[in-house]
Amino acid sequence: MTNERPALTAPGSRPRRYLMCEPSAYTVAYEINPWMDASRATDTARAVAQWRVLRDTYLTLGHTVELIEPIKGLPDMVYAANGALVVDGLVYSAKFRYPERQPEGPAYQKWFADHGFVTHTAAEINEGEGDILVVGDVILGGTGFRTERSAHAELARLTGREVVSLELVDPHFYHLDTALSVLSDDAAEPQIAYYPPAFAADSRAELERRYPDALIATARDAEVLGLNVVSDGYNIIVAPDAVDLADAVRARGFHPIPVDTSELLKGGGGAKCCTLEIRGAAVRS
Ligand code: ARG
Q1: Residue in 172, 175, 255, 274 annotated catalytic
Q2: In the prediction, which pLDDT does 1 show?
Q3: Is 273 in the pocket of ligand 1 (CB under 6 A)?
Q4: Is 175 a catalytic residue?
Q5: Where in the chain are the domains?
Q6: Distance, CA 5 to ligand 1 centroid (Å)?
Q7: Is domain 14-277 annotated with CATH 3.30.70.260?
Protein backbone atom coordinates (compact mmCIF):
# COMPACT_ATOMS: atom_id res chain seq x y z
CA MET A 1 0.00 0.00 0.00
CA THR A 2 1.11 3.51 -0.63
CA ASN A 3 0.53 6.15 2.00
CA GLU A 4 -1.20 8.59 -0.32
CA ARG A 5 -4.63 9.88 0.62
CA PRO A 6 -7.48 7.34 0.70
CA ALA A 7 -8.21 6.84 -2.93
CA LEU A 8 -11.91 6.10 -2.88
CA THR A 9 -12.59 9.80 -2.78
CA ALA A 10 -10.95 10.02 -6.18
CA PRO A 11 -13.08 10.56 -9.24
CA GLY A 12 -13.57 7.45 -11.32
CA SER A 13 -13.41 4.88 -8.53
CA ARG A 14 -16.49 2.93 -7.57
CA PRO A 15 -16.84 0.57 -4.59
CA ARG A 16 -16.70 -3.00 -5.79
CA ARG A 17 -17.81 -6.36 -4.51
CA TYR A 18 -15.38 -9.18 -5.10
CA LEU A 19 -15.42 -12.92 -4.55
CA MET A 20 -12.11 -14.55 -3.58
CA CYS A 21 -10.84 -17.97 -2.54
CA GLU A 22 -7.96 -18.33 -0.09
CA PRO A 23 -5.20 -20.44 -1.65
CA SER A 24 -4.89 -22.91 1.23
CA ALA A 25 -5.25 -25.76 -1.32
CA TYR A 26 -2.91 -24.09 -3.82
CA THR A 27 -0.07 -25.91 -5.55
CA VAL A 28 0.95 -26.69 -9.11
CA ALA A 29 -0.08 -30.32 -9.51
CA TYR A 30 -0.70 -30.37 -13.28
CA GLU A 31 0.25 -28.24 -16.26
CA ILE A 32 -2.45 -26.62 -18.36
CA ASN A 33 -0.67 -23.42 -19.31
CA PRO A 34 2.99 -22.66 -20.11
CA TRP A 35 3.57 -20.88 -16.78
CA MET A 36 2.90 -24.06 -14.82
CA ASP A 37 5.78 -26.42 -14.03
CA ALA A 38 4.70 -29.21 -11.71
CA SER A 39 8.32 -30.11 -10.96
CA ARG A 40 8.95 -26.70 -9.38
CA ALA A 41 8.16 -26.32 -5.69
CA THR A 42 5.32 -24.06 -4.59
CA ASP A 43 5.02 -22.46 -1.19
CA THR A 44 1.40 -22.54 -0.09
CA ALA A 45 2.01 -20.40 3.01
CA ARG A 46 3.62 -17.73 0.85
CA ALA A 47 0.71 -17.88 -1.61
CA VAL A 48 -1.72 -17.41 1.28
CA ALA A 49 0.29 -14.48 2.67
CA GLN A 50 0.38 -12.73 -0.72
CA TRP A 51 -3.32 -13.39 -1.27
CA ARG A 52 -4.12 -11.87 2.14
CA VAL A 53 -2.26 -8.71 1.24
CA LEU A 54 -4.35 -8.53 -1.95
CA ARG A 55 -7.58 -9.05 0.01
CA ASP A 56 -6.58 -6.50 2.65
CA THR A 57 -5.73 -3.99 -0.07
CA TYR A 58 -9.28 -4.25 -1.40
CA LEU A 59 -10.70 -3.85 2.09
CA THR A 60 -8.54 -0.80 2.77
CA LEU A 61 -9.81 0.74 -0.45
CA GLY A 62 -13.36 0.28 0.81
CA HIS A 63 -14.34 -2.66 -1.37
CA THR A 64 -16.32 -5.67 -0.18
CA VAL A 65 -14.69 -9.09 -0.30
CA GLU A 66 -16.81 -12.24 -0.19
CA LEU A 67 -15.13 -15.58 0.36
CA ILE A 68 -15.72 -19.04 -1.06
CA GLU A 69 -14.33 -22.03 0.85
CA PRO A 70 -11.36 -23.63 -0.91
CA ILE A 71 -11.86 -27.29 -1.81
CA LYS A 72 -9.03 -29.80 -1.32
CA GLY A 73 -7.86 -31.26 -4.62
CA LEU A 74 -8.79 -28.11 -6.57
CA PRO A 75 -5.50 -26.17 -6.41
CA ASP A 76 -6.55 -23.64 -9.09
CA MET A 77 -9.67 -22.61 -7.20
CA VAL A 78 -7.77 -19.55 -5.95
CA TYR A 79 -8.21 -18.10 -9.45
CA ALA A 80 -11.74 -16.99 -8.66
CA ALA A 81 -12.05 -14.92 -11.84
CA ASN A 82 -12.53 -18.16 -13.72
CA GLY A 83 -15.40 -19.30 -11.51
CA ALA A 84 -18.22 -17.42 -13.29
CA LEU A 85 -19.16 -14.17 -14.99
CA VAL A 86 -21.52 -11.92 -13.05
CA VAL A 87 -23.21 -9.03 -14.78
CA ASP A 88 -26.41 -7.19 -13.85
CA GLY A 89 -26.81 -9.64 -10.95
CA LEU A 90 -26.95 -12.53 -13.40
CA VAL A 91 -24.52 -15.41 -13.01
CA TYR A 92 -23.23 -17.27 -16.06
CA SER A 93 -21.52 -20.39 -14.78
CA ALA A 94 -18.07 -21.47 -15.84
CA LYS A 95 -17.65 -24.67 -17.79
CA PHE A 96 -13.96 -25.44 -17.71
CA ARG A 97 -11.99 -26.84 -20.64
CA TYR A 98 -9.75 -29.18 -18.65
CA PRO A 99 -11.06 -31.99 -16.41
CA GLU A 100 -8.72 -30.92 -13.60
CA ARG A 101 -10.72 -27.71 -13.13
CA GLN A 102 -14.19 -28.85 -14.08
CA PRO A 103 -15.53 -29.28 -10.50
CA GLU A 104 -14.83 -25.60 -9.85
CA GLY A 105 -17.72 -24.53 -12.11
CA PRO A 106 -20.49 -26.11 -10.00
CA ALA A 107 -18.72 -25.09 -6.77
CA TYR A 108 -18.79 -21.41 -7.70
CA GLN A 109 -22.30 -21.69 -9.12
CA LYS A 110 -23.48 -23.14 -5.82
CA TRP A 111 -21.92 -20.24 -3.93
CA PHE A 112 -23.94 -17.80 -6.01
CA ALA A 113 -27.16 -19.82 -5.74
CA ASP A 114 -26.68 -20.01 -1.96
CA HIS A 115 -26.29 -16.23 -1.89
CA GLY A 116 -29.54 -15.57 -3.70
CA PHE A 117 -28.36 -15.10 -7.27
CA VAL A 118 -30.12 -16.36 -10.35
CA THR A 119 -27.56 -18.65 -11.98
CA HIS A 120 -27.45 -19.98 -15.51
CA THR A 121 -25.66 -23.22 -16.23
CA ALA A 122 -23.51 -22.66 -19.29
CA ALA A 123 -23.99 -25.06 -22.17
CA GLU A 124 -20.76 -23.90 -23.82
CA ILE A 125 -17.17 -24.13 -22.59
CA ASN A 126 -16.11 -20.89 -20.92
CA GLU A 127 -13.76 -19.89 -18.11
CA GLY A 128 -15.71 -17.01 -16.61
CA GLU A 129 -14.11 -13.66 -16.15
CA GLY A 130 -10.76 -15.08 -17.19
CA ASP A 131 -11.97 -14.79 -20.77
CA ILE A 132 -14.99 -12.51 -20.42
CA LEU A 133 -14.40 -8.87 -19.56
CA VAL A 134 -17.08 -6.23 -19.07
CA VAL A 135 -16.09 -2.84 -20.48
CA GLY A 136 -18.94 -0.42 -20.03
CA ASP A 137 -21.93 -1.69 -22.03
CA VAL A 138 -19.85 -4.08 -24.08
CA ILE A 139 -18.50 -7.50 -23.17
CA LEU A 140 -15.17 -8.62 -24.59
CA GLY A 141 -14.84 -12.38 -24.97
CA GLY A 142 -11.55 -14.20 -25.40
CA THR A 143 -11.27 -17.43 -27.36
CA GLY A 144 -8.51 -19.57 -28.83
CA PHE A 145 -7.31 -21.56 -25.83
CA ARG A 146 -10.06 -22.02 -23.26
CA THR A 147 -13.42 -20.36 -23.93
CA GLU A 148 -15.36 -21.36 -27.05
CA ARG A 149 -16.69 -18.72 -29.40
CA SER A 150 -20.11 -20.35 -28.98
CA ALA A 151 -20.03 -19.28 -25.32
CA HIS A 152 -19.82 -15.65 -26.44
CA ALA A 153 -23.05 -16.14 -28.39
CA GLU A 154 -24.66 -17.86 -25.42
CA LEU A 155 -23.67 -14.97 -23.19
CA ALA A 156 -24.98 -12.38 -25.66
CA ARG A 157 -28.35 -14.16 -25.65
CA LEU A 158 -28.36 -14.35 -21.88
CA THR A 159 -27.37 -10.75 -21.13
CA GLY A 160 -28.73 -8.94 -24.17
CA ARG A 161 -25.34 -7.26 -24.45
CA GLU A 162 -22.98 -7.08 -27.35
CA VAL A 163 -20.18 -9.62 -26.96
CA VAL A 164 -17.08 -8.96 -29.06
CA SER A 165 -15.01 -12.06 -29.77
CA LEU A 166 -11.24 -11.68 -29.60
CA GLU A 167 -8.93 -14.48 -30.64
CA LEU A 168 -5.84 -15.20 -28.56
CA VAL A 169 -2.85 -16.74 -30.36
CA ASP A 170 0.00 -17.03 -27.84
CA PRO A 171 -0.36 -19.84 -25.26
CA HIS A 172 1.32 -17.68 -22.60
CA PHE A 173 -1.73 -15.43 -22.86
CA TYR A 174 -4.32 -18.17 -22.76
CA HIS A 175 -7.03 -16.12 -21.05
CA LEU A 176 -8.16 -12.68 -22.17
CA ASP A 177 -7.33 -11.22 -18.75
CA THR A 178 -3.67 -12.09 -19.27
CA ALA A 179 -3.49 -9.95 -22.42
CA LEU A 180 -6.00 -7.16 -21.84
CA SER A 181 -6.72 -4.97 -18.81
CA VAL A 182 -9.89 -3.04 -18.16
CA LEU A 183 -8.65 0.23 -16.66
CA SER A 184 -12.02 1.94 -16.66
CA ASP A 185 -15.36 0.23 -17.22
CA ASP A 186 -17.16 3.57 -17.32
CA ALA A 187 -19.61 3.19 -20.22
CA ALA A 188 -19.12 6.82 -21.24
CA GLU A 189 -15.36 6.60 -21.30
CA PRO A 190 -14.08 3.02 -21.26
CA GLN A 191 -10.32 2.56 -21.10
CA ILE A 192 -8.30 -0.56 -21.72
CA ALA A 193 -4.68 -1.67 -22.04
CA TYR A 194 -3.61 -4.62 -24.15
CA TYR A 195 -0.66 -6.50 -25.57
CA PRO A 196 -1.14 -6.70 -29.35
CA PRO A 197 1.05 -9.77 -30.09
CA ALA A 198 -1.31 -11.90 -27.98
CA PHE A 199 -4.12 -11.37 -30.50
CA ALA A 200 -4.90 -12.57 -34.01
CA ALA A 201 -4.63 -9.85 -36.66
CA ASP A 202 -8.37 -9.35 -37.10
CA SER A 203 -8.88 -9.09 -33.34
CA ARG A 204 -6.07 -6.54 -33.13
CA ALA A 205 -7.79 -4.53 -35.84
CA GLU A 206 -11.06 -4.73 -33.92
CA LEU A 207 -9.37 -3.45 -30.76
CA GLU A 208 -7.71 -0.61 -32.66
CA ARG A 209 -11.03 0.38 -34.17
CA ARG A 210 -12.97 0.29 -30.91
CA TYR A 211 -10.29 1.64 -28.60
CA PRO A 212 -8.05 4.02 -30.56
CA ASP A 213 -6.77 5.51 -27.28
CA ALA A 214 -5.98 2.17 -25.64
CA LEU A 215 -2.77 1.86 -23.75
CA ILE A 216 -0.40 -0.50 -25.57
CA ALA A 217 1.46 -2.70 -23.10
CA THR A 218 5.12 -3.57 -23.53
CA ALA A 219 6.60 -7.06 -23.79
CA ARG A 220 8.19 -6.43 -20.37
CA ASP A 221 4.74 -5.94 -18.85
CA ALA A 222 3.21 -8.91 -20.64
CA GLU A 223 6.03 -11.28 -19.71
CA VAL A 224 5.34 -10.84 -16.00
CA LEU A 225 1.59 -11.23 -16.58
CA GLY A 226 1.39 -7.52 -15.86
CA LEU A 227 -1.85 -7.06 -17.78
CA ASN A 228 -3.62 -9.06 -15.10
CA VAL A 229 -4.67 -5.98 -13.14
CA VAL A 230 -7.72 -5.12 -11.06
CA SER A 231 -9.06 -1.60 -11.44
CA ASP A 232 -11.82 0.10 -9.46
CA GLY A 233 -11.79 2.95 -11.97
CA TYR A 234 -8.99 4.79 -10.19
CA ASN A 235 -6.89 2.42 -8.08
CA ILE A 236 -5.17 -0.24 -10.13
CA ILE A 237 -3.68 -3.29 -8.43
CA VAL A 238 -0.69 -4.27 -10.51
CA ALA A 239 2.24 -6.71 -10.29
CA PRO A 240 5.33 -4.87 -8.97
CA ASP A 241 7.36 -6.05 -11.97
CA ALA A 242 4.97 -4.47 -14.47
CA VAL A 243 6.84 -1.19 -14.29
CA ASP A 244 5.98 0.16 -17.74
CA LEU A 245 2.28 -0.38 -17.17
CA ALA A 246 2.36 1.24 -13.72
CA ASP A 247 4.04 4.35 -15.17
CA ALA A 248 1.68 4.45 -18.12
CA VAL A 249 -1.50 4.25 -16.03
CA ARG A 250 -0.15 6.84 -13.60
CA ALA A 251 0.44 9.17 -16.53
CA ARG A 252 -3.25 8.76 -17.38
CA GLY A 253 -4.34 9.80 -13.91
CA PHE A 254 -4.84 6.36 -12.36
CA HIS A 255 -3.32 5.26 -9.08
CA PRO A 256 -1.26 2.07 -9.46
CA ILE A 257 -0.85 -0.02 -6.31
CA PRO A 258 1.80 -2.75 -6.59
CA VAL A 259 0.83 -6.03 -4.95
CA ASP A 260 3.18 -9.02 -5.17
CA THR A 261 1.43 -12.18 -6.37
CA SER A 262 4.60 -13.92 -7.56
CA GLU A 263 3.81 -17.23 -5.84
CA LEU A 264 0.48 -17.39 -7.65
CA LEU A 265 2.23 -16.63 -10.93
CA LYS A 266 3.62 -20.18 -10.79
CA GLY A 267 0.09 -21.33 -11.60
CA GLY A 268 -0.21 -18.76 -14.37
CA GLY A 269 -2.25 -16.15 -12.53
CA GLY A 270 -2.03 -12.69 -11.02
CA ALA A 271 -4.23 -10.35 -8.98
CA LYS A 272 -7.04 -10.25 -11.51
CA CYS A 273 -7.19 -14.05 -11.76
CA CYS A 274 -7.74 -14.17 -8.00
CA THR A 275 -10.64 -11.74 -8.12
CA LEU A 276 -14.17 -12.30 -9.41
CA GLU A 277 -16.23 -9.14 -9.58
CA ILE A 278 -19.86 -9.39 -8.50
CA ARG A 279 -21.77 -6.86 -10.60
CA GLY A 280 -25.34 -6.17 -9.58
CA ALA A 281 -27.28 -7.47 -6.62
CA ALA A 282 -28.83 -10.85 -5.96
CA VAL A 283 -32.59 -11.14 -6.35
CA ARG A 284 -32.77 -12.10 -2.68
CA SER A 285 -30.14 -12.20 0.03
N1 ARG B 1 -3.69 -22.51 -13.51
C2 ARG B 1 -4.85 -21.79 -13.94
C3 ARG B 1 -5.26 -22.26 -15.33
O4 ARG B 1 -4.39 -22.49 -16.14
C5 ARG B 1 -4.61 -20.32 -13.94
C6 ARG B 1 -5.82 -19.49 -14.19
C7 ARG B 1 -5.57 -18.03 -14.19
N8 ARG B 1 -6.75 -17.29 -14.22
C9 ARG B 1 -7.02 -16.26 -15.03
N10 ARG B 1 -8.11 -15.56 -14.84
N11 ARG B 1 -6.25 -15.97 -16.05
O12 ARG B 1 -6.41 -22.42 -15.62
Answers
A1: 175
A2: 47
A3: yes
A4: yes
A5: 14-277
A6: 33
A7: no
